[in-house]
Each structure stands twice: as structure tokens, then as C-alpha cells.
Automatic annotation (TrEMBL):
Record-listed E.C. numbers: 1.1.1.25
Organism per entry: Nitratireductor basaltis
Keywords, comma-separated and alphabetical: Amino-acid biosynthesis, Aromatic amino acid biosynthesis, NADP, Oxidoreductase
Gene Ontology terms describing biological process: amino acid biosynthetic process; aromatic amino acid family biosynthetic process; chorismate biosynthetic process; shikimate metabolic process
UniProt gene name: aroE
Domain spans labelled Quinate/shikimate 5-dehydrogenase/glutamyl-tRNA reductase: 123-194
Name of the featured protein: Shikimate dehydrogenase (NADP(+))
């Protein structure tokens, strides 16, 4: 008897904006797999009961996005190292009746830069703008790659300090007013805030102080080229946009459920860019 198709999901609240079904659907089709991946809108109050019913609903696992990542961390019975360090879960699967959790955002960030800017991790000092969930993933990725210094900069310095205390080691915390002073010794600048995203305020900082060898990365992908990246390109600095992080973080999750490791190709990238309306 043929095995039942594997079912996976992405859940959030709201969820209709998610491109994950398009990404995973592309890979299912590409590999000829008889599986499915669907978006499910789950309100926070219903999230615990949804997790308890995954096996009954026939799911092998799924992705978790806002606002459920920290709740998923609390409810998972087993966590991998990345989830433990970051304190949030974006990938779930069932194993021996147990709910397991991982966080693939750090992997996605690093893999995106590996693809776009090979050798990027030869840089030694990074500045991370923001102190939210995405910043946690980026800081973890940078520590995994052995950065000597990871400076966390946030408008509310107390939140930056919280991240510094969580990750320790090479991290330091700074207020927004220290950016200009820190830029000349920064090899890699990463924006993890929503500033510069379509519909949000611009990230209004000058890059004049960055050294000529610096790399600038933005996890925002709508628009694909943010003001920050345009300013960096005007200085002939190497840049990495954020869409690749979204695509690469999905690789590890897809492999977990469907037991096939997919590739992030130009064809997939262009399909998502088209769905975003060009993401100009």
C-alpha cells in the first residue's frame, strides 16, 4: 500500500501574506512529491490546542511565524541547539509522538550570505541593528561563524542589553546614538529592524563612516532593494538583500518533513519576486 502524502503547514495570525506555501509548493512540484503545504491562520488563544492536534490532523510538522514563535518554543518537548540559543521556534515536527522544535532563521541568514557573498564570514566585527527575534537569529549565526565582535544596537538600549546577556561572549550592547562612532570599525552591518520595509519608516542613517571593505545586509525584502542597500551600493559596498534569508531558512524545514534537500535557485527566487510584485 502506498504511503500517505506528507502534510505540512505554516501557521501565524495573520497568515495570508506568507510566501511559504509558494516556496514549498515549488519544491514539492520540482521533486515530484505527493505532499502538501498549507497556510493556517491560528489565533494565539487557539495555538496550544492546535499543536496538540497535529497528529490527529495528519501533519508531519510545520512552520511557525508571528506571533507564535516564542509560544512554540515553550510548547516543544524537544529543542535543537539553535532553538535553545535563540529562544524561539520556527520549525516543528513530530518524532516518536513528541513535538520537536528548531529555529532555521540563523541558518537561513548565513546560507543567504554564503550564496550571495562567498567569504563574507572572513569579516571580524559586525553591527546588528535591532534587538527583536530576527536579531537573535542573526547574532547566533554570527557567533557560530566566529565573529570577534558582535555589536547589538537598538533605540531602547535595555533590549540590546538583554540580548547581550543572553548571548554573552563576543556581544556588546549600544544605543542608537552610538552608530556613527561604531561605523568606522564595522566590517558587516546588518539591519534586522522593520525600518525601510514598505509601509514603515525609513532607516535613516548615514553610511559615510563605513570602511570601503564593509558588507551591508538587510533582512527586509519588500522592497527588495531598501534605502539602506541603495545607499551602500552608491558607495560600491557589497550588499545582500533579505529575500534569500526567507528562501534558505525554508530549506532545512522542507528537508526535515519531506526528506529531500531542495535548492534555492534563480527560478525560485524570480517566482517569489514576481509574486511580490517585483519588490522594487
Amino acid at each position: 500500500m502506498a504511503e500517505a502524502p506528507i502534510k505540512a503547514f505554516v501557521c501565524g495570525h495573520p497568515i495570508k501574506h506568507s510566501r511559504s506555501p509558494l516556496i514549498h509548493g515549488y519544491w514539492l512540484e520540482k521533486h515530484g512529491l505527493q505532499g502538501s503545504y498549507e497556510a493556517v491562520d491560528i489565533a494565539p488563544v487557539d495555538f496550544p490546542s492546535f499543536l496538540r492536534s497535529l497528529e490527529e490532523l495528519g501533519y508531519a510538522g510545520g512552520n511557525v511565524t508571528l506571533p507564535h514563535k516564542e509560544a512554540a518554543f515553550r510548547h516543544a518537548e524537544k529543542l535543537d541547539g539553535a532553538a535553545e540559543r535563540i529562544g524561539a521556534v520556527n520549525t516543528l515536527w513530530l518524532e516518536g509522538g513528541h513535538l520537536c522544535g528548531s529555529n532555521t532563521d540563523a541558518y537561513g541568514f548565513a546560507a543567504n550570505l554564503d550564496q550571495q557573498l562567498p567569504g563574507w564570514d572572513s569579516a571580524r566585527t559586525a553591527m546588528v541593528l535591532g534587538a527583536g527575534g530576527a536579531a537573535r537569529a542573526v547574532v547566533h549565526a554570527l557567533q557560530e561563524r566566529g565573529f570577534d565582535e558582535v555589536r547589538i544596537v537598538n533605540r531602547t538600549q535595555a533590549r540590546a542589553r538583554d540580548l547581550q546577556m543572553r548571548f554573552g561572549g563576543s556581544t556588546s550592547s549600544h544605543g542608537w546614538d552610538e552608530i556613527e562612532k561604531l561605523l568606522p570599525s564595522t566590517d558587516l552591518l546588518v539591519n534586522t529592524t522593520s525600518l525601510g520595509m514598505a509601509g514603515s519608516a525609513l532607516l535613516d542613517i548615514s553610511l559615510d563612516g563605513l570602511p570601503d571593505h564593509a558588507i551591508v545586509s538587510d533582512i527586509v525584502y519588500v522592497p527588495l532593494k531598501t534605502r539602506l542597500l541603495k545607499d551602500a551600493e552608491a558607495r560600491n559596498l557589497r550588499t545582500a538583500e533579505g529575500l534569500g534569508m526567507l528562501l534558505h531558512q525554508a530549506v532545512a524545514a522542507f528537508e526535515r518533513w519531506f526528506e529531500v534537500k531542495p535548492e534555492v535557485t534563480d527560478e525560485l527566487r524570480q517566482r517569489i519576486v514576481h509574486d511580490l510584485g517585483g519588490a522594487k
